[in-house]
Amino acid sequence: MKLKSSSYFLIVVMAIALFLGIVSLTYTSPKDKLVPLIASGVIVILGAIRLRTEIMAPPEASENEEFDDDLVEDSGETENKREGFAFLWLAGLVASILLFGFLITVPLFTLAYLRLGAHHGWLESLALAVAAELFLYSVFVLALRANLFPGILLGG
User: 27: domain range?
Assistant: First the structure.
C-alpha cells in the first residue's frame, strides 16, 4: 500500500487539528474550550473518514494495464498543483481570520472560494455565504454564547 501525497497532507492537517484541540483543553473557561474542541474534533473525524477512503480505494492502474509514463507525470503535476492551490486557500483563510476575525472572514471567504476556487455562480455563492454566516452566528454567538475571535485589525 502506497500513500498518495494528498494522504500525507491530510495526515498533517489532522495532526495540527489534534494538537490545537489538545492545546484548547488547557484553557480555563469551558466556553473558550468549546469552539476549538468542536472544530478540531470535526476536522479529525472527517479527515479520518477521508483517509480511510483513500487507503481502502483500489489502485488506479492495475499491473496488467499498459500506461504512458507522460500521462502519469502530468497527473502527478496536476495533483500537486491542485494541492498547492488548496494550501494557499487554507493559508488565506487563516490569515483572514487572524486579521478580520471569524464573523467577517466566514462569509467573505465562502463567497470568494465558491466563486473563484470552485467556479460557482454569483447567486449560489452569495446564498451559501449568507447561509454560512447565519449558521455561524446563530450556533456559536447566539446558542453557545461563544466569544469568537474579532481579528487583530478589529480589536482582537
Answer: 1-63
Instruction: Examine residue 127 and state whether it is found in any structural domain, yes or no.
Output: yes
DSSP 28-79: SSHHHHHHHHHHHHHHHHHHHHHHHHHHHSPPSS-TTS---HHHHHHHHHHH
User: Would you call 90 helix, strand, or coil by DSSP?
Assistant: helix
pLDDT, tens digit, 9 for 90 and up, residues 89-116: 889 999 999 999 999 999 999 999 999 9
- In this structure, is residue 76 part of a structural domain? no
Instruction: Clarify whether residues 53 and 94 are in a common domain.
Output: no
Rounded distance, CA 151 to CA 140, Å? 16
Residue type, 36: P
17 three-state secondary structure: helix
